[in-house]
Model the fold of this input.
Amino acid sequence: RLQPIASLVCTMALRWAATSAAVVLGLFITASASPLCRELYSSGETWRNCTVEVGGLAIQGPDAFRAQWNSTYQDYLTSRFRRSHGLTFVAHPLTFNENFDFVAAKRLDFIFSNPGAYTCMSIEFSLVTVASMINLRKGIPLDRFAGVIFTRHDSNITTVEDLRRARVEAVSISGLGAMQLQQAELLSLGLNVMTDVQRLTFSYSQNKIVQDVQNGYADVGFVRTDMIERSEAQNKTKWEYFRVINEISDNDFPFKRSTDFTPEWPIGALKHVPWEIMELVGQALMQLDYASADPALSEPATTGKFATWVPPMNYYGLLGMLERIGYYSPEERRCLRSSDVYQAVKCPAGYVKKAEAAAFCTSDCKEGYTCLCQPCTELKDPALVLRVEELHTQWSGDIDRVVLDAWTSFEDRCERMGRCAQVAEGQRLQWVLLDQIGEISRRQINAPLLTSVEIRLRFDGAWSNMTAENVTLSDGTETQQYTFESIALEVGTQVVQVRVNGLQAEMSPVVIEHFEPVQLSVSCGPGEQATDSGVCEACPPGTHGAVEGQAPNTRHVCRSCQVGQHQPLANQSQCLLCSSGRAANSTGASECAACVLGRSTVGQQGASECQVCEPGQEAPEEGQQRCSLCPRGRFSSDEGAPVCTACELGMTTPEVGAKDTSACGCEEGSYFARSNSSGAYRCRACPAEGFDCPGFGALPLVLPGFYMPEGSARDVWEPRVFRCRSEEPCPGGEPGACSPFHDATEVACGVCESGAYEVGGVCQPCGSSTFENAAPLVVITLAAITCLAGFGFGINMSSGYQTHSLLNILALVSLIVSVAQTFCLFRELAITWFAPLDALLNIASFVSFELDATKFTCIFGVDPVQGYICRQCIAPAGMLVILLSLAVKRRIAKATHVVVEFVNTTGALLNALFISVLLSAVTPVVCYSHPGGHSASVRSNPSILCFASGAHTAMLVVGVFAVLIVPAPFGAFSAYLSWKFPELINSTRSQDLKLLQCGRFLFIRFKPEKYFFGPVQLLRSTLICFVPVFFTRMEHQVVLVMAVQLMFMLFQQALRPWRSDATNMIDGVLSAILVLVLMCASLANNVQADLRLIQPLSYVILAIFALLCLGALFVAAYHYFRRTPFYHHFICHHKAGAAAQARLLKMRLQALNNSSVFVDSDDLQNLDSLFDIVKSNVEELVVYLTRDTLTRPWCAGEIATAFQTGKVRVTAIWTDTFQPPEDWQIDAVESYVDISGMSKYGLVGHDIQEGFRRLLDSKTRIIKPPADVLSSSRLDFVVACLAERKPPLPKDLEPIPDQEDMLLVSVEKHNQEALAAASIFFGKVSDKLLEVGVSLACNLCDHSLEDFSAVSSAIGQARGVLIFLSGGTLRCLEQLLVISEAMHCADMEGNSSSVVPVLLPDSQFPGADYYKDVLPLLLPDHGDDLESLIQAFFKLIAAPLSTHASDEVLRAQASVILDRMVIGKAIRQQHSLFHTSSTFRRSVSEAARSTAAPCAASPACSLGRVAE
Done:
């Protein structure tokens, strides 16, 4: 019978083995071969890391561009060429300016832009057009578009000429359809939109143009055809709001237009792109078609809103248009950019362009817009204006300034032969010739440029050139003025001439008048001396003023400055010392001479000569105050050296002030190396990793954590060094240095010496004896065998022992083991760990199959390949141990299913240790690179070079087989089980049930509806195991592992698959802790990180982790050993047949001995929790057997679970309606009870059969009330038996008490549910009866009714009558007579509310057929009065009593029933129907004569013998 299961497992294993082999082989081939994209350049240059950059003009913004074009330029092209060429395409949205900048900088490979900008770029940068787009608008493919000039429908702008007074808005000067086409069209109609409109605004978005025109911010807008239709489709506007200006009628084109057509947008390649890729991209784009049946070809077109692509169209016709509007210069072969708005302005004849700041307006310009407001201004007349200006003049003290200022005057403008000014002789003047047009405007209007401007101050004097200056006029015009400074030298009238470009200027000649200044009497002061004529004159430079003679015969004289002093100014009273760095070696110096090169004044002032520099010093500049020491890298061996000599071969000096070449050497951080090409030695920077270069003759030293083979040359240009796994085995220093007991001949000191073993990355010496070395391995092996055997026994325990508390413990242990394995995975990442995280990772290594701690190498040697093979044998060996232990168990317990338990045990073990098994297998492909990228090593065995040694090849082969033998088949089997689980749980075939039992390990920990979470966990483990395989950089590894952890953490928290909420929370917290640990480690690996800040955080995280694990295990164990809440009795029943009886049984048991009782109907929604209560929290299971109890799935499950546990006492209560199933029914239990969904709770048909047999067995306690026990007392009999008390003795019926104010209750006598409902009612309102005036509550079933006159009398004196309507009431003569008598008495008294119908769940109401066919059989000759009374009763509003509801609902309903009664006088006896109606007496007599009244619901429901 197990053959199909074994065949299925083998088939799935072989399929997954073949698939896994293909994947691994593909990975191996991919890892050993470089992508094709790296061979695309003939020069050998790699293609930007195999990424193709595609830029596109985003006229609607970056988000809109990505939404429209990413599916084409990024997703589609990548899918086409990723596998064939290794290329990944990335799309970039660009602005108008970025278009040109990115292409110019070669930051793109392909460019997609509007035809105007593209044509410019193709000319400037030699682009190659690949394809042209065919647009799709209104379902019509279009290969061209045009421009639209539009305004609001209510605007008074109707013609092109009206645009001169309009505010016009366009997208940009680089916008083809929204500016350039309109500009060319308007220019042909005599309107220059750049200069002739009131305001020209550039918004850089066509959407904004439509909205601004609609809102009135702009009068006229420029957009491309179909733009307004697109806005209309987005419900942003309507065409009826607008009107087209200069509309061109065209029935063949679906859109309104105002300009000529232009071809649709092209895509082109930069010239560095290989022709092969250009052709492939063009072909790929041309295959796209919106009508294609292939979604891969139609979806990009649909998203991009185009029809297809075609071979390149002709775009060079646009150059003529761009040249006409002034955007393209054929001479420069360059177009204007979007930001060149000012340069695009071309003023008409008679006008000049304003200054850039004045051409743009900001007052009414929105933020982010560019506004051009009438940038041209009319030319001014005259073109040239001459004037003369007064400059500051230093007058001598003998000049009368008041008279001079009064006589001096200047004209605003010099006229031909007119006087320009009247000034004093000696006045400093500035002649100014202003060009009111300016050079820029002259060039624009083709006016002569002012190449030379000359002035002559005397009629016969020489011509002098005037100096040109740029100025800005008040109206913003940028222009030039020409100036010339002069001094009025001669008294009289002078004629001044000006000529421009060699010709006399229009205003020339002009006249200026000079007058002689009026003199004052002078008294000489300091710094002056008196001349022989009695006039004071200033002392000249190089002298200073002094006083000679004795008072009063003193006079001021000038004397020469002494040596070391100078005086550069005249009229000074003293000389100045020469500053440091300058000297004066003679008297009368007006300035000190700077020290020549190689000399200085040694920091002194007033030096008469400069001193030479000493060896080791230099003075490279003139006038140095001190000689400076030679900087590092230079020396000076001679005195007076102007410049120090540089050291050769890239060497430097250790200190400044070196005096000879012997001080030169390679600086710290570099070394003297031999060039690979020339063989010459020179200084070279220390390699970036692995070396410490002290410099100055010392060879490089190996840094700690790196290894260099002994004897390796260190003076070569590129020395090879290997990165060690940590600093412990590699102390650094000289080549070949390794820590003690590490083999210095192996790469990266990655292997221990013979006679040593590795612990935590450090080699330790082996023990002195074989016993000492073998003991750890033997002990661990024996412990593992014992644990595996115990594990196999525990995991295959009956489901009755596997309570939720125990499963929670197992789930927590599996989570902790999974976290420990994840920590082991962290060791394989390119992270340098620190305390305390490194200690945590070493502790977690006990689940990673590492053999080092067992002293394995001390016994079997240190061959890494051998150790790896042994690690791969651990999982198969464990499986063999499990199989052998189960074989032994089979010898002891014959019922053991070896195959089922083997698969379940092995699956549970592999599921718990999946990360360790998979990570151990893929170890050969977890590599890390050495500095320089010359090689890589296996991270777990650094001595083995990846893909470069036979040992690694052997490990790869073994690893592939290891993956195919264990993880791959296990993953396939788990996925298959999860896929088939919904089908298996509903199957009754033994093969399917056994297969389901094989997969208990996969589902038992989770909620039944979350059965699929097991493979999800395996997927998460697989992903994080392969992160270090495919990614070697630390930051990539950390980000990806964190992403996987967070993604699955969110998925787990959303699903909450574990059976316990606490386990779900702990799973999420542990995932968060793993992410925090990775974050701390990644932060610590930052070179700028402060470990002192990160370590305390690590301690806190580990403390939280430890407390969480220990606390969770403690709480789970506490709940396992202390079962809370605990129930003394668990009542198993069928709600439809015994809801009230079970509820009453619970009430009686609780009242009798204060027992804790649970009724299964209180929680039938969650059978998993219900069965768990039976397993762990119940002392006795009470099975209340009615007709359909054993046909209910939950009852069958509760019974089977109770017997499986072996610790729950089971008691069966047999009722009159219960019929035990036959043996053949139990054998075919699937037909007797629906157990199709029970397998997900661990119960199969065999378990249900065994439970039924043991329930009906004589060994099980059975309670069956005797037949002579009254119906109303049967439950009391059951309660007494359950409480192990003496059952009540049978008693006869007593007569009805003769007492007033009773509450009478009529119940179907032999209906146990109805009797229980009445008892429940009395129990719920017993404390309220006295409050409402009820002296006694009387159930008529407990009293003799043979004398019906007593019944009539009791009804007449009662406070109220409750009629409990059940399924047999309509055929129960006893209840019908009570109803008739109660309604008659109540009607006579007018107090019908004292009769209350109580509606039970199985009650029925009479129909018309009942009164016609059934009632006459029950009461022959009953008369119309009796029938009308019964009809009136059933017209009363019934009060419900839901026996299956909770205690709170029952209490509320009972109170409502009691409140329904009208508390008043007792019904008078004389109104009795029994006494007044002969028909009623006749009916009672007939009933008395009948041996058995018809009663469908109960076997005996008659009055018996009733005395008339």
In short: The chain has a mean pLDDT of 82. The longest helix spans residues 1091-1121. Residues 231 and 237 are 6 Å apart (CA to CA).
